[in-house]
Amino acid sequence: MEDICYFLIGKIGGGKDHARSILPTYPCLQPSDTTSFRISLSKYLEALRHSSIYPSHAENKAKSSEGKRLSPGSAISGAAWWWKDVVVRRSLLEECCGNRFERLILALSTHALLKCTLGSRSSSPPEQLDSSRHLV
Questions:
Q1: CA-closest candidate to residue 12, choices 116, 83, 121, 88
Q2: What tens digit of pLDDT does each residue of 43-68 get?
Q3: What is the spatial distance between Cα 85 and Cα 89, in angstroms, rounded to a whole number?
């Protein structure tokens, strides 16, 4: 679990330096390292989940403080649906089993996959369609 989460966080953040800054106790060589690893991982996952579900939360908060009225669904539009039914708890990371744990790891891996896919797509030039090629 530790190796998988470290790898996925590295993919989300863009490298090992990002993962190392979030999970400084990796690799866990002592039981105390494991405890602090899981605490920092659960805090990161909760923050990632919240920022994915409510991507413009800070922007909406600033607008609402200015007195502008927002629609109730405006914060959820464009939200990452795979995080919707996921519960982030440190106890899930300690047990490493069960349906809730599998959903948590699935949401993290889906987030990493889409982040890498969209990141590689935006860095490469758009594909040009060749009119001479036809699909049969």
A1: 116
A2: 999 999 888 888 776 455 555 544 44
A3: 13
Kindly report, residue by residue over 40-49, the tens digit of the pLDDT. Answer: 999 999 999 8
Q: Is the pTM of this model over 0.90?
A: no
Q: What is the pLDDT of residue 81?
A: 81
Give the Å distances, CA to CA, from 73 to 27, 69, 83, 84, 86: 41, 12, 17, 14, 20
pLDDT, residue 104, reads 93
- Which structural domain, as residue segments, surrounds residue 16? 2-55+78-117
Whether 123 maps to a domain, the answer reads no
- In-domain check, residue 8: yes
Under a CB-based contact definition with an 8 Å cutoff, are residues 23 and 33 in contact?
A: no
